[in-house]
Amino acid sequence: MIQGFILSMQFLTRVPINIPIDFNDKNIRNSTFFYPFVGMILGVLCAIPYYFLNSFNKDIASFLTVVLMIIFTGGLHLDGLSDTVDGFFSNRDRERTLEIMKDSRVGSFGVLSLILIILFKYIIISSMETNIVDAIILSMGNGRLIVLIQIALKKVARPGGLGDMLHRTNPKKQIVGGSFIYILIISYINIGYLIPLLVSFILGELISKYTYKKIGGFTGDVYGATIELTEAISLLTFWGVSLWT
C-alpha cells in the first residue's frame, strides 16, 4: 500500500518523489485507494498562499492558489479537459472524435475551456468569505473521488489507453475502501460538506452519460476533464453552502 500511495502521488501530482516504483497491476490497483487523499494533500499545498496572504490581498491570494493548482498537477488534468472539449465539440463521429482527442495540438474549443475553467476557479475562490481553505482542500479531493467511481464502474472507450490501464486492474475493493474513509472524514469535519460531494457526483454522472453518447466510454482525457469540472462545481457548491450557513 505504501508503494501504491507513492505511485498515486507520482501519477496525480508533480511533487518530486524520486522513489522508483514498479508500474505493475498490483501497485496501480492499490494506488487508486489514495486518489481522494492525494487530492486533499494537493489542496493543502495549494491553499498555503491563501491561508497566509488572504488578510493582505484576497485577489493575489486567490490567483496564487489557482496557479499552484496548475503547477502541482503539471496541468495534466487541464490537458485532458482541453483535449476532451476539442473532441466532443468537433461534431464528428466516434472514431474521428477519439483521433482529435489524441492530437497533441490544442484547438479553439480547448483554449476556451482552459480560460473559462481557470477564470471560474479564481472568481469562486476570491468570492468566498468563509471556509475557503476547507473548500479548496475538499474540492480537490472530491474531484479525484468522482474519477475513482468512473474508473471502477464505467466502460472505457479505447483499449490500451490510460483509462483501460486503470480499469483493467479491477480496483473496486480499493475504491470502495478509499471512498468510505474519505466520506467519513468529510462527515467528521462538517456534515454539510457532503453537499458539494453530492453535487460533484451528480455532475460526474452527467459527464458519464454525455461521454457514452459521444465515444461510448471513458479515456484518460475524460478522467482529467472530470477532475477539473467536478473541482469547479464543488468550489461553486461550497460557495453556496457558505452563503446558506
What is the total tally of β strands?
0
Regions with little confidence, pLDDT below 50 for 5+ residues? none
Strand content: under 5%
Query: What are the secondary-structure elements, in order, as H or E?
Result: HHHHHHHHHHHH
Q: How many separate domains?
A: 1
Q: Any idea what the shape is?
A: globular
Main beta-sheet annotation: none
Write down the Rg: 17 Å
- Determine the number of helices (DSSP H or I, runs of at least 4 residues): 12
Share in helix:
over 70%
Summing up helix and strand content along with how strands pair, one would put the structural category as: mainly alpha
The average pLDDT is 89
Gap from first CA to last CA: 39 Å
Brief characterization of the structure:
The protein has 245 residues and is mostly helical. The protein is 77% helix and 0% strand.
Description:
Helix 5 crosses helix 7. Helices cover 77% and strands 0% of the residues. It has one domain. It is built from twelve helices and no strands. The N and C termini lie far apart (39 Å). The protein is mainly α and 245 residues long.
Topology:
Layout: H1 2-12, H2 25-31, H3 35-53, H4 58-73, H5 76-88, H6 94-102, H7 108-127, H8 132-153, H9 162-167, H10 172-189, H11 194-215, H12 220-244
Cofactor: Mg(2+)
Enzyme class: transferase
Catalytic activity: alpha-ribazole + adenosylcob(III)inamide-GDP = adenosylcob(III)alamin + GMP + H(+); alpha-ribazole 5'-phosphate + adenosylcob(III)inamide-GDP = adenosylcob(III)alamin 5'-phosphate + GMP + H(+)
